[in-house]
């Protein structure tokens, strides 16, 4: 049976990923925890993990045990850190697989200690401290005496300490206060030498703030080619390009509606290309009517009307000889994903992670 080429696909340039890894490594001056949660930000968890497994990575950072399980099943044995708290039903697997959790409460610690003791293991854990994110970790009032209480658990090895920056790309003053607070907490808990790993900096923190306090950084978005701080964008290489094909080209007369709701009506005879991609593939519907373009026929061509589930329509009147089968870039090296995100009223993180499974991931460009 013949197999047709995909209508929508994402080209993942692994050489660009490795370039961005080196940018992160140079900025850090220490070790890296590569964040691969949410399917490596939509780039494909297993393939990205396998690509980076031999690149001197201290940890892979994941959101939950399901993601950790997939990495192990892909044959990757790099240490794995759980970026979010695990609930009671997940903790037995955390211990069994030797994952590294962060502790947010004494209930966490007591349960992990019990499970590790029952398994005859000593579980490596990190202390999570909440310096302003409000999502997990011990809060300020719990810090006095914290280390003494945690050290009473015989089956836990307190290997590291971490916190998270919620506003490093938006609020410099608050972020600097977080860095200072993190330094104070480390001092209160025994000083830097007490912890093998000290980590606070995400991509924005790594690029824009002091790094001396931490010996482990957690780059995420920057690895996938987007800087949360625009002034550093030129250091990074584009990793993902979302592409599709023209399926039909017609000339519509003046006064003809395009797409649902007749949000757009032609004002001249218009050469309209139908593209085989839509919000069912993860291309955001909210760009409709916001001046978004795609790259086809050697130029940026505006989207007409509303993005539909499986197709969009584009004005190619001025784009030359565009025809069915021509390749279209939805975002990538010519149409920045940040432009698509801004027009959709969202962020690049959401665009990447929203690319659906029916979009085929194609890998290439590994150095």
What are the defining features of this structure?
367 residues, 4-stranded parallel sheet, 28% helix, 23% strand, single chain, Lyase, Ornithine Decarboxylase, Chain A, domain 1, TIM Barrel, 8-stranded mixed sheet
Short overview:
28% of the residues lie in helices and 23% in strands.
Care to describe what's here?
By secondary structure, the chain is of the alpha/beta class. It folds into two domains: 14-224, Alanine racemase (TIM Barrel), CATH 3.20.20.10; 240-364, Lyase, Ornithine Decarboxylase, Chain A, domain 1, CATH 2.40.37.10. The protein is 28% helix and 23% strand. The chain has eleven helices and 18 strands. It has helices at residues 14-28, 37-42, 45-52, 65-73, 88-97, 106-119, 146-150, 172-188, 203-208, 337-344, 348-353, and strands at residues 8-13, 31-35, 59-62, 80-82, 102-103, 123-128, 156-162, 197-199, 216-217, 240-252, 257-258, 264-265, 270-275, 293-296, 299-304, 312-315, 327-331, 360-364. Strands 1, 10, 13, 14, 15, 16, 17 and 18 form an eight-stranded mixed β-sheet that branches. A hairpin with a 7-residue loop joins strand 15 (299-304) and strand 16. The relative contact order is 0.14. The mean pLDDT is 96.
Question: Helices, strands, pairings?
Answer:
Layout (H helix, E strand, L loop, with lengths): L7 E6 H15 L2 E5 L1 H6 L2 H8 L6 E4 L2 H9 L6 E3 L5 H10 L4 E2 L2 H14 L3 E6 L17 H5 L5 E7 L9 H17 L8 E3 L3 H6 L7 E2 L22 E13 L4 E2 L5 E2 L4 E6 L17 E4 L2 E6 L7 E4 L11 E5 L5 H8 L3 H6 L6 E5 L3
Helix pairs in contact: 5-6
